[in-house]
Amino acid sequence: MKTNPIRYVLFTVCALFMFGAKASTYEQVIQLQPGWNAIYVEVQPEVDSIEQVFAGIPVASVWRWLPDDQPVAFIQDPDEELLTIDGWYGYFPPERPESVLTNLYTISANQPYLVRLLGSQPVELRIEGRPLVRRMRWRSDDFQFTGFPVDPDNPPTFANWFAGSEAHADQSIFRLSENGEWVEIAQPFSERIQSGEAYWVFTRGRSTYQGPLEVELEFDGRLDFGGTLARDGFTLRNASGLGNQITLRQLDSDVPVPLAVRQVDDATGSIFWPVLPREYTVALPVDEAITLRLGVRRADLLANDASHIIEITNGFGARRLLEVSAAVSQPIVQTATATVRRSEDGQLRNADPRYAGLWLGVISIDAVSQAQQGGVMPTPVGREFNLRVLMHVDASGTTRMLKEVIQMWQDGTEIPDPDNPGFFITETPGRNVLVTREELIPNFSGAVLRGGEPVGLRVSTAGFDFEGPELELAGAFGANGLLTGSIVLDPEFPTNPFLHRYHPDHDNLDPQFLNFREEAFEVTREFEFFFSLNDPEQLNPPEYGDEELAGAYSESISGLHRSTVFVSGTFRMRRVSTVPLLNQ
């Protein structure tokens, strides 16, 4: 049987949404030589147990230096009894008699270790983990045991690495020799820093030096957009003493984060967001910094959670690894409704539950047909006019047009803590509620405080009126989707434009004001919202296709004139709430 490639792709996408995606990791490979090794771990192991990290590797011991406020007692020979020296913590495998002295249990990112390898053959230590961006903290007027984030394929010399730091230039640096002794670097202009190796480095005075290429995050660790943040960034600082061409390269990942990068047109000042290519280069002059603004294109996410690693290099030996992660705003958890079908031209054919929530938008009418001439083609108006539109998409993807909605709050529930009598734990957390029926308002509390009193947040529109609080629309809400709807204003409908309760010719009553006589005309509105796959204004904000949508609007109005009136325009909508339910 021949496999339908489109069905296969959709099945794969749905499976990813159901089960999520594993966080991206990087495998650091460190060569261990027989005897003592000074290593520098750059990633946070997936399993940080030191016993698991070194499983299968014949180590006699692993040591980490956790300095106190006392000056470093420099250790010339690692074979000295490290357990007797303050600041050193050690691990001994269970089969060794010293294992009862173990007080080091985990391996952490951006940390140096001393490893004593048994046997006579080199061994590869492979650590699978996630990179973390953290600032280096130097000890003033003292030695620091540390390694450096350098490019394994293009390692810099010690002199080049510290050229931008007065506190480290021409200061003592010690490297562990092959025979297990600490030896001072004699030729810093020719000897190179090796990736994964740790050294003793002296700092003269105070220093905040982070290397020739510094990566600054608002919060140390990772660039995590989560499920709500659309835009974030980081700062690159050049302290190399040379003009740099910074290269960002996105490493392979099962489910990468689709990113856009903020750019400004120098001539017009307009902002646009092109897709971040796999490799992206930016010039960074000497002693200058640049902030790169990135955005998540959630409409292109292929799983509930996605992540990948960006390798940042300056061409002179510095390398930083930055993990980027993001999640969808409204995770898909229903297998029955998660299959999204599109036609051959890509048009969305059925509901997409990823768009669940409340959407607020503006329709700009810019063309109206000339009804008095029987015209059917809308012609441009002198001045466009706007209509507010309010829609809600539920968890199954069904779209309803709303006249008004009130955001309220549903209190959570608590139960006694079985482990701590007298205390309570949360059974059901509190949550926001969207209410369209006023009789349900007393069932909830206000979402915000006004004058010290909890009140609801009301959003309404006067551009569309219909029977009841909600009007279900046909079609698919989402990028390249089509929604259609119809509103009939019968002669007795309160907002029928021909109805006037106090005018005898338009009150639908006979001259005696006793019996019904139709005097107002029935008005019918047929309208369509066609959602553009790409931003029609070509602004391409990263939110487009996920938190923001736009497209073309058209409407035909019959009964208002003897000829049907045709109007057209554009619309733009933003998601203002991800609550997938109404009135509950």
Kindly state the number of beta strands. Answer: 39
**Radius of gyration over C-alpha positions, nearest whole angstrom:** 33 Å
The structural domain count equals 4
Could you name the ranges where pLDDT drops below 50 across 5 or more consecutive residues? Answer: 1-20, 332-338
Mean pLDDT: 87
Biggest sheet layout? 9 strands, antiparallel
Number of helical runs?
3
Helical content stands at: under 10%
Strand content: 35-45%
First CA to last CA: what distance? Answer: 46 Å
Q: Looking across the biggest beta sheet, what order are the strands in?
A: 34-25-24-23-39-38-37-36-35
What is the structural class?
mainly beta
**Large-scale geometry:** elongated
Structural account:
With 584 residues, this protein is mainly beta. It folds into 4 domains: 26-203, no CATH class; 213-327, Immunoglobulins (Immunoglobulin-like, Sandwich), CATH 2.60.40.10; 353-403 and 461-577, Porin, CATH 2.40.160; 405-459, no CATH class. 4% of the residues lie in helices and 40% in strands. The protein has 3 helices and 39 strands. It has a 9-stranded antiparallel β-sheet with strand order 34-25-24-23-39-38-37-36-35, with no helix packed on it. Strands 13-22-21-15-19 form a 5-stranded mixed β-sheet, with no helix packed on it. The model is unreliable at 1-20 and 332-338 (pLDDT under 50).
Brief summary of the model shown:
The chain is mainly beta.
Give a quick set of tags describing it.
584 residues; Immunoglobulin-like; Porin; nine-stranded antiparallel β-sheet; disordered N terminus
